[in-house]
Design a protein that fits this description.
By secondary structure, this protein is α+β, with helices and mostly antiparallel strands. The chain has seven helices and twelve strands. Helices cover 42% and strands 33% of the residues. The strands form three sheets. It has a six-stranded mixed sheet with strand order 3-4-12-11-10-7. A four-stranded antiparallel sheet has the order 1-2-5-6. It has a two-stranded antiparallel ribbon with strand order 8-9. It is flat and about 105 Å long.
C-alpha cells in the first residue's frame, strides 16, 4: 500500500489542476487496488471447484450415456437371438448398421455387408458395365431388414424387409427419364434380346441407409447427398434382366442377368 501511495504522489500533475482532481484520482486508484486484492484472495477458493468441474461433467455424461449403450446392447442381443435374423445373417451376411431407441422400443437396421463385385468391361462406342449375377446375389446387394425390439417384453416385435420404393420412391417423371436413358443406349440393343418387355421400374435401394427420428417416429432414410438410382426390369424367353440408371448423371451404370422367371 505504501508503494502505491508513493506512485500516486509521483504522478505528474497537469499545469492547470482542478481543486478536486488529485483527491479523485487517488481514490480511484486505491479502489482498483482493493479489487485486485479481493481477486487474489478468492482465486484459491475457486481452484478446487474449477478442477472438479471436468470430473463432474464426465460423471453427468456417464449417467446419461451408459444406460443408452446398455439398452442398445441388450436390444442387439435380443435381435440376433431371433431365428429369422440368424437365418438372414447366415444366408445374406447382414449386419447391424444403425440403432435408435424410442418409447421402450429399439429400432435396428440390418444391411448386407458390402462385397466386391465381379465386373466385365464391354467396349462398344462407349464403356459400360456388364455384371452377371444370380437372384440370390442380387438380393444380397439390394435388401436389408428393420427389426423392432420390445425392450419391456424382451422380444422381437417385428421384422420388415426394406424396399426401395418405401425409402426413395420414384415420380412418374423419373420413371420416364429411366426409359429415355435406356432407349438411347445402343450397347443395350446388342446385349439384350429383341423380344424383351418391361416388367417394372423401381428405385434402387441406396447402400448406406440410416435411421432418423421424425417427431415421435423412427424412419429409414437415405444417406445425405446420395445419387438417386432406378432399376428397370426386363423379361424375355424365361429370363429376367435388370438395368440400373443413375438419375442424376442420366446414364446406365449396371446391367445384370438376374436369373429365370
Amino acid at each position: 500500500m505504501e508503494e502505491l501511495k508513493k506512485k500516486i504522489n509521483q504522478i505528474k500533475k497537469p499545469e492547470i489542476e482542478l481543486p478536486y482532481f488529485k483527491a479523485a484520482l487517488k481514490g480511484r486508484l486505491l479502489k482498483e487496488h482493493q479489487k485486485m486484492e479481493k481477486r487474489f484472495l478468492i482465486a484459491p477458493l475457486l481452484k478446487p471447484a474449477l478442477v472438479s468441474l471436468p470430473i463432474l461433467i464426465i460423471l453427468i455424461l456417464g449417467v446419461l450415456i451408459l444406460p443408452q449403450q446398455f439398452m442398445e446392447a441388450r436390444a442387439l442381443k435380443i435381435a440376433k437371438a431371433h431365428p429369422e435374423i440368424q437365418k438372414l445373417i447366415q444366408e445374406y451376411n447382414i449386419r447391424p448398421t444403425d440403432i435408435k431407441l424410442q418409447d421402450q422400443k429399439a429400432y435396428l437396421l440390418f444391411m448386407p455387408e458390402e462385397t466386391p463385385e465381379n465386373i466385365l468391361e464391354v467396349e462398344n462406342q462407349k464403356r459400360m458395365l456388364l455384371e452377371i449375377a444370380s437372384e440370390k446375389e442380387t438380393l444380397k446387394k439390394s435388401e436389408g431388414v428393420l427389426a423392432i425390439v420390445d425392450l419391456q417384453r424382451k422380444n422381437v416385435a417385428s421384422i420388415k424387409t426394406i424396399r426401395g420404393r418405401e425409402v426413395v420412391p420414384l415420380t412418374s417423371q423419373e420413371e420416364q427419364l429411366v426409359k429415355e436413358v435406356v432407349e438411347k443406349e445402343e450397347v443395350l440393343k446388342e446385349i439384350l434380346p429383341p423380344t424383351i418387355t418391361i416388367e417394372k421400374i423401381e428405385p434402387a435401394l441406396p447402400e448406406k441407409l440410416r435411421l432418423e427420428k421424425k417427431g415421435t417416429e423412427i424412419q429409414i432414410a437415405p444417406p445425405k447427398n446420395f445419387e438417386k438410382r432406378a432399376k428397370i426390369l426386363y423379361k424375355s424367353d424365361g429370363k429376367r434382366w435388370m438395368v440400373e440408371v443413375n438419375l442424376q448423371k442420366k446414364k446406365i451404370e449396371k446391367l445384370q442377368l438376374i436369373g429365370n422367371q
